[in-house]
Amino acid sequence: MKLAEYCDTATSYIGDIEIGRRFPSMEMIEKIANILRIEPYHFFTNPKNNNENLDTENLFPRLPNSMKKQIKTQIKTQIDHSTNKIFNEINEILNKY
Predict the structure, then answer these.
(1) Is residue 2 within 8 Å of 32, Cβ to Cβ?
(2) Could you give the CA distance from residue 38 to residue 30 in angstroms, rounded to a whole number?
(3) Cα–Cα distance measured from residue 82 to residue 54, given in angstroms and rounded to the nearest whole number
(4) What SS3 class is residue 39?
(5) What's the chain's Rg over C-alpha atoms?
(6) pLDDT band at residue 75, thresholds of 50, 70 and 90?
(7) Which of 31, 41, 71, 76 is 20 to 30 A away from residue 57, measured at CA?
(8) Distance CA 70, CA 29 (A)
(9) Quick check: pTM over 0.90?
(10) How many CB atoms lie within 10 A of CB 62?
(11) DSSP state of 9
């Protein structure tokens, strides 16, 4: 209940995340990680596997495939958005000269 309160969300939403019924947005993952004082990637790694050279399929071993797909889509969207922003900034700089 406290986590939901700290995240300013419903306890049912946190419960759905915990049992794998829903997947949080990247913003909510960051919010929860900040509250718990951990890095967000800790939610997706297998604590028993200390291998630093994981391939992408094994990056999120504890998540169902549907959630892995959602994560990949969110990451791709974020990268695309960031890339476009960088290109726009470069174009603005080049247009000044």
Answers:
(1) no
(2) 9
(3) 24
(4) coil
(5) 17
(6) confident
(7) 31
(8) 13
(9) no
(10) 11
(11) S
* 60's tokens: 């999120």
- Rounded CA separation 81/77 (Å): 6
pLDDT tens for each residue of 6-60: 999 999 999 988 888 888 888 999 999 898 888 888 777 765 554 444 445 555 6
Q: How many CB atoms within 10 Å of residue 22? A: 15
Q: Which of 5, 40, 3, 31 is nearest to 18 (CA)?
A: 3
Amino acid at 7: C
For residues 26-53, one letter each, b for 16 or more C-beta atoms within 10 angstroms of the residue's C-beta and e for the rest, the string is: eebbebbeeeeeeeeeebebeeeeeeee
Structure tokens at 97: 């000269």
